[in-house]
2-amino-3-carboxymuconate-6-semialdehyde decarboxylase
Amino acid sequence: MTGPIVDVHTHLVPKGWPDLAAACGGDGWPWLRIDSERAAMIMVGETEFRPIGPQTWDPVVRREDMDADGIDLQVVSPTPVFFAYDRPADQAVKVARIFNDLTLETLAGDNRLIPFCQVPLQDPDAACAELDRCLAAGHVGVEIGNHVGDRDLDDAGIVAFLKHCAEVGAPVLVHPWDMPGGPRLDRWMARWLTGMPGETHLSILAMILGGAFDQLPESLRICFAHGGGSFAFWLGRVENAWQRRGDVVRGRSLHPPSTYLDRFFVDTVVFETAALRLLVDTLGEDQLILGSDYPYPLGERPVGEVVRKAGFLSGGQQQKLLSANALRYLGRS
């Protein structure tokens, strides 16, 4: 293997954030319940959201896990529960600044850990300003949620922000979040098991059928988490619908959906060799990047196992998925 092995999809939760209600205004913010030196619980109001351990806040533990899994570089992004897109923009600006600054403090300039920031995406001008501030401070890219309320990624304001990302050379990681709930989806983590893939699929469709890719420069480097959700499996259905029901399906797109497959990356968090083969066959070996969703329990460990065990990949293809494609995405090749 030549080149560093790069994991582009990991998260952190810094320790020691302030009382967000006092710092940002409003109420109902996430807070951290400390259960022990090595265990904590992210709380939203009085509801337990997610248990976390030192992997989320301690870079020493993170680097030990990277060494155990053979990972040289790791992109470290926010945990989406802190995005605050449903709040007034001034509150979202404040919480973004708090967590972006804490991220840099937590990672402390470690050259193996590559920080991505968050932005107040509900306000495109404020989002551009926060991105610029973060890039100047040491962040390398930005993680965004896949929608802002009912506004998907073809929304004019979000497209304007993505244009700015292309102009300043910031890679973008799109992460599903804020999945619908209800009696059928609140069982078995179904929002994560079915809602996340569906959300990501919908947002890729929005960028294609909503005309976003036609408006955006090809220099935009954008990656969709979790293998692009269910998009690759259903591309044939989308293509068929675009051709047969173009009066409804084509939207603002100028070309068939398959035309846009080289405009975005997806990560490899799909867990099964057959699913990885589908991604390679559908999207192409140049559009896949190693990801893990570390350190959360629905992520892949050891990181990169599905790629390393994929016997159908040549050595050159593995090198692309484990290293070269990520370096191109990060603007390092």
Notes: The longest strand covers residues 30-36. Residues 6-19+53-329 form a domain with the TIM Barrel fold (CATH 3.20.20.140). The two ends are 16 Å apart (CA to CA).
